[in-house]
Amino acid sequence: MQLKEKLGLAVCSLLTATQSQAADWLYDASVLSYSEKDSQQQDRVSVIEPVISVTKQNAVDDYVQFQAVYDSLSGASPNGANAAGVQQNFNNFLVRPGFTPLDPGFNDTRFAFNLNWLKPFDRLSRYLAGLSFSSETDYKSAGANFSYLQDFDHKRTTLTFGGAYSYDAVNPHGGFHDPFTSIYALPATPAPQTQTSPSGGGTGSGESESLFPGKIKQTFEGIFGISHVLNRFTLLNFTYGLSYVNGYQTDPYKIISVIDSAGLPVDYVWEKRPGTRLKQTLKGSFITAIGRDSLHLNYRYYWDDWGIHTNTYDVKYHLGLGSLLYLVPHYRLSQQTQANFYRLSLNNGQALPEFASADYRLADMTTTTLGSMFGVRLNAKLTLTANIEQIRQTGNNHPAIAIGDQRRHDMFPDLTFWALTFGVRGKW
Amino acid sequence: MTERNWQCQQKGEGLWLGTFEAMKSPCEIWLETGEENARALIQWAASETWRIEEKYSRFRSDSVLSQINQQAGQWQTLDMETLSLLNFADECWRLTDGMIDITVGTYLKHWHFDSNTRPPPRKLLKQLAASVGWEKIQLQQGNLLLPEGMQLDLGGIGKEYAVDAVALALAAKLAEGGIMVNFGGDLMAIRAKLDQSPWTVGIENIVADESAVKVISLFRGAIATSGSTKRYAVDKRGRPLGHILNPKTGWPVAHGPASVTVIADTATQCGMLSTYAMLQGEQAEDFLQQQDVRFLLQ
After folding, report:
1. Are residues B80 and A18, on separate chains, in Cβ contact within 8 Å?
2. Which of A216, A236, A370, B260 sits 20 to 30 Å CA-CA off A397?
3. Is A208 helix (H, G, I), strand (E, B) or coil?
């Protein structure tokens, strides 16, 4: 790189550092909403999620950010059982023949708070730290993260080393169930609380009320990243992440159909997942300026020791339309392979596997997202945005392992829905 | 401080020119907008420029820069803007192998570029050389230790920085319309005019300074000039000595062009390139050709 360009970069960092000092308080508020409907015309989950964040920006490498999220989730979600040619009874609701069973009692609200701050150590190094807490009626989570960032080569290259920890507690409505027991078995008496953590019970009642009642899951994470300014127009970024999850990871609401040789359900049992999971992620991103526009390419490869491999491709183009309007069309494709303990169903009379889940989110699945963000800069202090995207989830409708009656029904109804986000951001 | 004045006049359909004095230069702000908006923005630009001048002037004892120089010998905490400027100075010092060095302030105290004062004795400059050199500065976590006897000078950065900072801030305040900021020939056209016609800028002729030697058209970009016949000292034979000092000797560069004008992206970048070119003396032209920039020598 020539002296002219190196000086250009130095001037850029000088001006961004000093200009941003004027912008002391930044705010960003948005509301996301969507309603899922599957290809069987069954309504699924509806979500409304307002997010508010406030940032106190002291300099480009010095800020404190507080974010609050409220999530309202209602509707129905697949409980794991397969569609069947008979009416199916799940204790508190019935499902008509041919339809994928959805658990209608899927309502919850979630509050989440995040506090993040970036502080310089000196002119070439800084740290990013954060604390997070979230709460639902049946789930609590608290976490902390820390990253160290070091610049090299006249700030053209930045290395990031970081770690994170989170402590989650699952405390399902109706308590925990023994894996692979029938959903028709009499509900467990509140007595067998020996399975839960010493700090509390699944009943939520009583004297030993804890901030984290239920069963515990801990996540340990490490990340390593490198970003490099290739030239005045192009930025490259690579990240490797390793995460180890230990504790209760079974979904306490998911069940599995037990079928006979004709493929018809004879029973439903509670699922069971491993107590540990090792996840790895490799990410690469490429951002380049094209005139006053910019192109963002991202690729992510994820794999874990549950056997899930995911390739995700993401393309965005930031298109300026004059100085007031901009458009950001984007496309995302994510292809996932199933977990090795994923089962469409279990066969009656056969030996039980060590782990099994029929959760469609652990199955082979392709998700595509196509949409665009529209932004209007009303003035230097206020920008309005609207983001509309169509999300489409498809899987194996008629897997080869389906037998008898299962072959006559859709084992993975496609899901297509629109998500809308409206936002406002600016500074005081 | 006496009240400082600024003027605003219409120069065409929706084109406004704001003028004021700062940093010993006539300053111009060109804007395409309505009158009310233009007045408010020009007033803001003038006060922002005066703020930067008052903060970093070597000639005002109450400036932040003078306070830093007065507190040489002890650790001091810097505000973010000053820290950013010193970080930038550090980067320039590295990139130019120590030729652009703001610790030349130590020498400058003894030079008077008023077009008739004789230079300080060579012996004194030799003694002062021990108190020059950016490598002697300690800058850690926003704290500065300037060794005793050393003086910083931001004269080589301040004006161009003010041009860029004011231009950038105006662009953030004004959503649409052309913007050009010109402080005595160091300028930045941050946004082209709405009718897509270029900004035209006259580069001052150093011999007869009323008529422009060359008119440059630019849509967007920046220009800065180093070296000038307005600020010089004279040697014992009456010959002018320019005000750009070699940090190794404390003496103005000899045998170079009288001035170097560079055209690039930001005024600060142009200023650093033109100063560095001046410091190359006879090799100035070769140096500029290698840099792949548009330039003009006089």
Report:
1. yes
2. A370
3. coil
